[in-house]
Amino acid sequence: MAAPIYVVLLGKQGAGKGTQSELLCARHGLVHLSTGDILRAAVRAGSDLGHEVSRVLEAGELVSDDLVNRLVEERLAAPDAAAGAVFDGYPRTRGQAEALDAILAPEAIGVCVLVELPDGLVVERLSARRVCEGCGTTYTATDPSAVSGVCERCGGRVVQRADDTPEAIGARLAAYDRDTRPLIDFYDARRLLATVDGDRPVAEVQASIEAALAARGLA
Ligand code: AMP
What we know:
Elements: E1 5-10, H1 17-28, E2 31-34, H2 35-45, H3 48-59, H4 65-76, E3 84-88, H5 94-104, E4 109-116, H6 119-128, E5 129-132, E6 138-140, H7 144-148, E7 158-159, H8 166-180, H9 182-188, E8 193-197, H10 202-215
Parallel strand pairs: 1-3, 1-4, 2-3, 4-8
Antiparallel strand pairs: 5-6, 5-7
The chain binds adenosine monophosphate.
Adenosine monophosphate binds next to α2 and α3.
């Protein structure tokens, strides 16, 4: 069997990491490992984990490294992750990046793609973002599914995320600058970084990401 492929997607909230992760996973048979999705599912399910993290999520702060590292390790151990994964929203701190190296072996990460977007556009995109509670599909406020509140894919409820409010968006951008931005240098120093402009149509961003994978022999 071919060696697993591990791709880290870095970038601010709203840069399009979730959409691009889905496209990458569909094309390469990888698992979309979004720690945000795992945490939100726990909050919706009302599990112990959900109760533990719900306030942190709503405030736009980060949950502890130990907790997310454990979630990632568990998810990677599942059989469907054998071909590899796209990490979306993880790692978010230096501690998490080091933990990921320990979980996978440092040479396992094939590429880290930074999807760039200016802060002004982040606020605009997140304020207009609507998400299906059932399947996670993302819409903009003017899409028919967002207007009707019913997902055209699965019939689930389409809502605004509790942390897509102006206060939480501010806190999340601050957390990105403080904790996550240093990871750009962390991966660049290892020559794993590829930067793409996220302010373009989805298909163009996707083509740039595929080119970054191909350049490293991953496609
Ligand atoms: P996201 O969907 O990636 O924007 O994540 C939503 C929220 O989940 C974040 O604002 C954090 O509260 C929490 N979260 C997700 N991933 C992580 C992570 N890797 N480390 C800490 N907190 C996280």
